[in-house]
Design a protein that fits this description.
heterodimer; A: 334 residues; mainly alpha; two-stranded antiparallel sheet; two-stranded antiparallel ribbon; 73% helix; flat; B: alpha/beta; Rossmann fold; 6-stranded mixed β-sheet
Chain lengths: 334, 250
């Protein structure tokens, strides 16, 4: 046997170096972004402490007046950064969006996977996936122009009439921009990816198991509820976590339809809100005029909290998936 | 108790491909009827038409008449049909996310049996009938996928028996199993015919000879010959039947 040529050995060394570099970039970026955001947040962490997470007021202070010094950090007089309304706004709008999106996506996916076939199926699938390609600013515009007035005139009064006995669902629809509008727009943006993933998952359920259910005299719904959904549960949790992460981080659409609520927690489903992402986009311009730079640091800490929240949801989803697949594995071993 | 099945001029298609070309036969109650024939002759399609499973496959279409006792199967609600005509499939398919107990109990739960002790009793009875009880009684709440292939297939039989159907359709129930498991399934079939009408599809002629009272030979979607198992195997009336059972084709 002849030894490999020098050229092929050199090529292999190059390949290893390049592949190693490429493979480490995602980790590198995650670490670098995390560290940068963390370092950027330090002045505000020192200035605000835990009140950053519990405070309700966000005030850049008198940027043309005197500066004050607290805990060794100089800030414009009266500056205070309380992010709680934005944390709540982010969680409330994204959770509400997922509550709307999950049933819609699962039902659509069931129809796509099992009920329609041939050309109808491909056309329908393409339409759903096209929805994912619409830029978020277009969703935002649609939310302002179409959804807002509809909430004011129809949906808001209807919710008040039917579910008005629940305090959180009772109140004036205001301008139609707010938590509900954000949730609906976010739901619409999450539905395509959730539907496509769920459809692919459902198509992987072996027909053998579905026929087992049908042959046992189960109705369509029972087959889906008892056999198909449990079978795809792990994947579904993953898809929901992904969609949730996307809904939490969505910026433009929520900036447009959220109503830019500041300095107050949402007290009804119609209240104006801001999310962490939309505040960062909204406030960056004025924050840059702060001579002490503390306002920018405050936005960096918002980004940090948003990142941590997204990581936590992903991590929770991972734990859920691991737990349920572990019980399945243990079963096989027994 | 079992009920008889009357099949009149049954035709079935997958898209444009016709797999059954007008089958008529009387399947007697409380007997084992075997369907034999080469691959692709339509024997599986035939029993999948009896419990209206064929129509759930994309592009599956059926014409003709199937009667269970006096009731027209194609006039009944399809879900109700499948509760009185149970089915065991070629590959064992216990529901992978459910425990052994729940695999058998799920049909009862969905059928509205709420009483836990009645449920447990029926599960035990079904598992005993399927000759599985002694092997699983200590681990009823383990996942069903932990069982061996032969045990899984007997679990599927118990699952089908639990809802107390009149007819049990078996689509090559032992083809994926080893010889010992196969023998157990065959014993089971013989013991069950007392209470059920059994239709069993098999590509194994010895199996048909061992378990069936009557045997039907299918070829290219047609019923070539149908009669008592012994006479069909010893004195076939049709040349094609003779060619098949003597191993000249298929």
């Amino acid at each position: 046997m002849r030894a490999a040529s020098r050229a092929s050995k050199t090529a292999d060394i190059w390949f290893r170096v390049v592949a190693g570099l490429c493979a480490s970039t995602p980790v590198l970026f995650l670490v670098v972004i995390g560290v940068v955001v963390l370092i950027d947040s330090i002045p505000v962490i020192r200035y605000m402490g835990w009140h950053f997470l519990t405070g309700v007021n966000w005030d850049l202070g008198d940027m043309y007046g005197n500066m004050v010094v607290r805990n060794g950090v100089s800030a414009p007089a009266g500056a205070t950064y309380g992010a709680l309304p934005y944390i709540v706004g982010t969680l409330a709008s994204s959770v509400l969006a997922m509550l709307i999106a999950i049933p819609v996506s699962v039902c659509t996916a069931v129809i796509l996977a099992y009920r329609v076939h041939g050309p109808v199926k491909s056309v329908f699938s393409i339409l759903v996936e096209l929805l994912a390609g619409i830029p978020s600013v277009v969703f935002g515009l649609w939310g302002m122009v179409v959804l807002g007035p509809w909430i004011v005139h129809d949906l808001g009064p209807a919710i008040n009439r039917v579910l008005g006995f629940i305090p959180f669902l009772r109140g004036s629809a205001g301008t139609g921009l707010g938590l509900l509008n954000s949730a609906l727009v976010l739901a619409l943006m999450v539905v395509p990816i959730l539907t496509a993933t769920t459809r692919d998952l459902l198509e992987q359920v072996p027909v053998l198991y579905r026929e087992g259910g049908i042959g046992l005299g189960m109705t369509d719904w029972e087959v889906i509820r008892r056999i198909c959904l449990p079978y795809v549960k792990d994947g579904l949790i993953g898809a929901v976590a992904l969609g949730w992460g996307r809904a939490m981080g969505e910026t433009m659409a929520v900036l447009m339809v959220g109503g830019s609520g500041m300095n107050a927690l949402p007290h009804t489903i119609f209240s104006p809100i801001s999310t962490m992402a939309s505040v960062i986009a909204n406030q960056l311009d004025s924050a840059l005029t702060d001579a002490t730079h503390l306002a920018v640091h405050a936005l960096a800490e918002l980004a940090l909290v948003l990142m941590v929240l997204t990581l936590i949801t992903n991590w929770l989803a991972r734990i859920l998936v691991q737990r349920s697949s572990k019980t399945l594995r243990e079963g096989v071993r027994a | 108790m079992g009920q008889s099945l009357h099949v009149r001029d049954l035709k079935a298609w997958y898209g444009n491909h016709q797999t059954l070309r007008g089958i008529s036969m009387e399947i007697p109650e409380n007997r084992v009827t075997a369907i034999i024939g080469p691959s692709g002759c339509g024997k599986s399609t035939f029993i999948r038409c009896l419990n209206r499973l064929h129509e759930t496959t994309p592009q599956g279409r059926v014409e003709g008449k199937v009667q269970l006792g006096d009731a027209d199967v194609y006039e009944m609600d399809a879900v109700d049909v499948r509760r009185v005509i149970g089915m065991v499939f070629q590959k064992p398919n216990p529901f992978p996310t459910l425990s052994i107990y729940d695999n058998v109990a799920i049909g009862l739960k969905l059928g509205g049996m709420r009483d836990k002790s009645a449920q447990f009793e029926r599960v035990e009875q079904s598992l005993r009938m399927a000759a599985l009880w002694d092997e699983v009684k200590d681990r009823l709440h383990r996942p069903a996928v932990a069982l061996s292939g032969g045990q899984q297939q007997r679990l599927c039989i118990a699952r089908a028996l639990a809802v107390q159907p009149n007819v049990l359709l078996m689509d090559e129930p032992a083809s994926a199993l080893d010889p010992i498991s196969t023998a157990r399934i065959e014993e089971l079939v013989l013991s069950l015919k007392e209470n059920y009408t059994i239709v069993i599809v098999t590509h194994n002629m010895q199996q048909a000879a061992r378990v069936a009272d009557k045997t039907a030979f299918f070829l290219n979607g047609e019923l070539i010959e149908f009669g008592d198992t012994t006479s069909l195997f010893t004195r076939p009336q049709d040349n094609r039947t003779e060619d098949y059972i003597t191993g000249r084709f298929g």
